[in-house]
Write a structure and sequence with these properties.
about 200 residues, alpha/beta, Rossmann fold, 5-stranded parallel sheet, two-stranded antiparallel sheet, 7 strands, about 20% strand
Length: about 200
């Protein structure tokens, strides 16, 4: 399988726990025979600004966005890694979704409002981090990231083979806890993307 791995974390020194998760996910995929296409959106200075010209479904994409669209369409699966940022992905990742999950190329609306997609039936794994303890996240906010990824994004484009795991609380975790989470990351990747 070809798996597109995208990480969005503001720590451009790549020392965040999100980067550790990404490294483990990519290494696990490669070690089990999968091809990995990796993008670190902050390190690449990905421009999240959706322009008015890009709103048209048939508008041409600039070369960078065209590459990302082609990689999204060409992948058999997706691993997305990011922190919970005010109940959302960081802005650069939201901009990546806006510009790359492109209407007219990745998905289309039919006259009856139905959606067809070039990536339907693929697999997705979303790994997020947060500082809010799980009970507080669910009690206060209802886990908006689960709804966003499962229903609003991947659900819209026909990806139902979806798993998300949130690791929390990062600021209260110990080195041993983080090692356990990285081992869990390996297991999640292997389960969602079995060895080739």
């Amino acid at each position: 399988m070809k798996v597109l791995v995208v990480v969005a974390h503001q720590n451009t020194a790549q020392t965040s726990f999100c980067h550790a998760i990404t490294q483990v996910a990519a290494e696990t995929l490669k070690s089990t025979g999968h091809e990995v296409v990796l993008h670190d959106l902050y390190a690449e200075w990905f421009d999240p600004m959706l322009t008015q010209e890009e709103l048209a479904a048939d508008a041409p994409a600039n070369p960078v966005i065209r590459q990302h669209i082609d990689e999204l369409i060409g992948a058999d699966g997706y691993v997305i890694v990011h922190p919970n940022w005010w109940g959302q992905p960081p802005a650069v990742l939201k901009g990546w979704i806006d510009r790359v999950f492109r209407q007219g190329q990745v998905y289309r609306f039919g006259a009856d409002g139905s959606v067809t997609s070039t990536i339907a039936g693929r697999k997705a794994l979303v790994l997020t981090t947060s500082n809010t303890p799980r009970e507080a996240e669910l009690g206060l906010y209802g886990d908006p990231l689960e709804n966003l990824w499962k229903n609003c994004i991947f659900g819209l484009v026909g990806i139902t083979d979806f798993v998300r795991r949130n690791f929390e609380s990062i600021i209260m975790s110990t080195p041993d806890q983080r090692e356990t989470w990285l081992a869990e990351t390996r297991a999640l990747v292997e389960k969602q993307f079995p060895p080739a």
